[in-house]
Amino acid sequence: KFGVTMLGVRIFGLDRIIAVAVSQAGAFQVSVQVGSRFPALISATGRCIAAFGDYPEAQLKERFDKLIWDNPPSFAEWLNQVAETSAQGFGIDDGNYISGVTVLAAPVWKSRGRPSHALVTIGIGSALKRSGLAELQTALCAASAAITRQLGG
Fold first, then answer.
1. What is the C-alpha to C-alpha distance for residues 52 and 20, in angstroms, rounded to an integer?
2. What's the whole-model pTM score?
3. Which of these, 71, 50, 69, lies nearest to 61 by C-alpha position?
4. Residue 148: its pLDDT value, please?
5. Rounded to whole angstroms, what are the CA distances from 64 to 8, 78, 112, 136?
6. Contact assessment for residue 18 and residue 9, using Cβ atoms and an 8 Å cutoff
7. At what angle do helices 43-53 and 75-88 cross, to 10 degrees?
8. CB–CB of 3/27 below 8 Å?
9. Among 59, 69, 94, 123, which residue has the fewest nearby CB atoms (within 10 Å)?
């Protein structure tokens, strides 16, 4: 419906995330394969991990300093974005990780505690804003809540 690349990722603490499902749609597609690994705190998913993982700030800072971004936020900006993620229930990366690309992520829980997975959407930022970013955010959060219920979280 939204013409985005969708990922299901498994979260391995602050070490990494691994793509466990990939679905591509629309003209813009990101080449991600099942099994692709990414640093845990990168992009929108990283904001979710930090927001809902209850990790000490010093531990987050140590990992954050090692990340490679196209347009890196400062750690203070990133912490503000983590707080926004906590309040709204999903993370957004508007061109930090990859310039011009907007990434949304919503946490999925298999049990209480930290999220075990996340749903991730990837698309051209300007196109998503034109086609209904707010509607995509709502759909993403509804889908992550449905999967959480299915997993018993």
1. 20
2. 0.92
3. 50
4. 94
5. 22, 9, 25, 27
6. yes
7. 70
8. yes
9. 59
Which residues of the chain have a pLDDT value below 70?
26-29, 153
DSSP annotation string for the chain: ----EEEEEEEETTTEEEEEEEE--SS------TT-EEETTSHHHHHHHHHHH---HHHHHHHHTT---SSPPPHHHHHHHHHHHHHHSSEEEESSSSTTEEEEEEEE-SSSSS-SEEEEEEEEHHHHHHH-HHHHHHHHHHHHHHHHHHHT-
User: How high is the pLDDT of residue 2?
Assistant: 82
Tokens found for residue 59: 């531990």
Structure tokens at 104: 């949304």
Give the Cα separation of 141 and 136 in Å (integer): 9
Whether 51 and 33 have beta carbons less than 8 Å apart is answered as no
